[in-house]
Amino acid sequence: MTHFRISDAAALIGVSDDTIRRWAADGLLESGRDAQGKKTVSGVSLAQRAIELAPDKTESGHRRSARNAFTGIVTAVQTEGLIAQVELQCGPNRVVSLMTAEALTDLGIEVGSQATAIVKATTVIIEAERNPEA
User: Fold this and answer.
1) Are 115 and 74 in contact (CB under 8 A)?
2) pLDDT tens, N- to C-terminus, the chain (134 residues)
3) Cα 86 to Cα 24, 72, 102, distances in angstroms
């Protein structure tokens, strides 16, 4: 079974180290210690907690077919002719979107505003480190 140190677990799901420690103390995450005596949480309990926290509806209450929605703050906007590029910082993730300049204006997007990037893709590539225990 995979275990993560507190800081790694926090980074994975976009919360603070203190939140992970609190969830472990409250029994919301299975915890233990690694060979060096550092506190860890189980990957299985962390995954379950991430699912519990993930919203299954938009703020308006509507469901959508795209499961990959990243809400964050707009950090950059560039417009050139008919095209606009919008950058969002969504927790530890940077998301970049291209759209028409008209759509940018219609949405009222500007640096500092909150926005949600909804990603619908036909190909998703997964990368993971090999588990030395496997």
Assistant:
1) yes
2) 789 999 999 888 888 999 999 999 999 999 999 999 999 999 999 888 887 876 655 556 666 666 788 888 899 999 999 999 999 988 778 899 999 999 999 999 999 888 888 888 777 777 777 766 65
3) 37, 12, 13
Amino acid at 91: G
How far does the chain reach from its first CA to its final CA, in angstroms?
A: 10
Longest dimension (CA), the chain: 58
Distances (CA, A) of 69 to 35, 55, 95, 119, 121: 37, 9, 10, 6, 12
Extract the tokens encoding 110. Answer: 């500007």
Enumerate the CATH 1.10.1660.10 domain ranges in the chain, comma separated: 3-53
> What is d(CA 72, CA 69) in angstroms, rounded to the nearest whole number?
10
Q: What architecture (CATH level 2) is domain 3-53?
A: Orthogonal Bundle (1.10)
